[in-house]
Amino acid sequence: MQIYEPDQIDDEIVTAFERLMPQLTSLPAPTRQDLEEMIASDACRLFLVRADDGKIVGSAALGIYRTPTGLHTWIEDVVVDSAYRNLGIGEALSLAAVQAAREMGADSLSLTSRPARKAANRLYQRMGFIRWETNLYRYPL
């Protein structure tokens, strides 16, 4: 397994997202332009996982933003292809994000995970993420 940050978007990456995103959400997969904007942005780092067989089998995004209270980082959209789960790939992706956040000098790293994603929630707790008692509000735009 190899975790890497792409420096350009190619057809293989676009196709991988078309396969992976339905395993995470009902929202459409990002377009090539969306992915190109992500890797060009200082506010996002994209991590991909290539399995030993050469196939891209997972991804995670690390959001980065500064506020008056410091540099904040947030893990978003972690997904591992269902055929490659329970091999430590999700943990490896999360650890890559943890290391990147630490190297950037962030004070903390946050994430959310739906309660239905039981295995993911167990993983994050085992890794040392602490469940934060707060209310998350979303304003639809």
Lay out the secondary structure.
Layout: E1 2-4, H1 11-20, H2 32-40, E2 44-50, E3 56-67, E4 70-80, H3 89-104, E5 108-110, H4 118-127
Parallel strand pairs: 4-5
Antiparallel strand pairs: 1-2, 2-3, 3-4
What keyword list fits this structure?
alpha+beta; 5 strands; 141 residues; five-stranded mixed β-sheet; globular
3D structure, described in words:
The structure is a single chain. The chain is of the alpha+beta class. Helices cover 32% and strands 26% of the residues. The chain contains 4 helices and 5 strands, in the order E-H-H-E-E-E-H-E-H. It has helices spanning 11-20, 32-40, 89-104, 118-127, and strands at residues 2-4, 44-50, 56-67, 70-80, 108-110. It has a 5-stranded mixed sheet, with helices on both faces. Strand 2 and strand 3 form a beta hairpin. The longest helix is centred in the last third of the chain and has 16 residues, at 89-104. It is globular and about 40 Å long. The N and C termini lie far apart (38 Å).
Order of strands across the main sheet: 1-2-3-4-5
**Helical region count?**
4
Number of strands: 5
The overall pLDDT average reads: 95
What would you call the structural class? alpha+beta
